[in-house]
Amino acid sequence: MESVILQQIDATHAALRKVEPWTSRSVQVPIEYLKLFFLDKADPPQPHFITLTTMTNSSELDTLATSCDRATFGRANEDVLDESYRKEGELDLS
Predict the structure, then answer these.
(1) How far apart are the C-alpha atoms of 35 and 14, rounded to whole Å?
(2) Are 39 and 67 within 8 A, CB to CB?
(3) Does a structural domain hold residue 40?
(4) Dist CA 16 CA 68 (whole Å)
(5) Which residue range(s) make up the domain with 40?
(6) What is the torsional sign of CA 50, 51, 53, 56?
(7) Residue 42: inside a domain, yes or no?
(8) Calpha distance 20→2 (Å, rounded)
(9) What is the CA radius of gyration of the chain?
(10) Is residue 68 part of a domain?
(11) Which of 43, 47, 63, 44 is nearest to 55 (CA)?
C-alpha cells in the first residue's frame, strides 16, 4: 500500500515539474512600448503596428478593424454572434 502512495506522490511531483505555476502581477510599461503588432488579411498578409497612446490616423484603426474576425460571445451554453448586442472583433493570436 505504501509503495502505491509513494508512486502517486512521485507522479504528482513529475506533473508539477512539467508546468510552471501560475502567477499574477502588475508591470509598469513605458508608454513608447504600447504598440500593437498585427497582420492584415491581404494575400500574403502584411505586417502593421499601431502605437496605442499616440495613434491619430483613422486609417490605421480601419486597417486593424478589417484585420479582425467577428467575435462571438457565450450565452446559455452556446456561442452567439449578435452585433445588435455586442459588436467586437478578435485577432488571431498568432
Answers:
(1) 39
(2) yes
(3) yes
(4) 37
(5) 24-90
(6) negative
(7) yes
(8) 29
(9) 22
(10) yes
(11) 63
| Amino acid making up residue 83 | E
Query: Which pTM does this prediction carry?
Result: 0.55
pLDDT averaged per 10 residues, the chain (length 94): 79 75 80 88 91 82 87 79 78 76
Cis peptide before 44 (omega within 30 of 0): yes
- Tell me if 50 is assigned to some domain: yes
Report the C-alpha gap between 87 and 68 in whole angstroms: 12
d(CA 77, CA 94): 27
SS3 67: helix
CA–CA gap between residue 73 and residue 81 (Å, rounded): 7
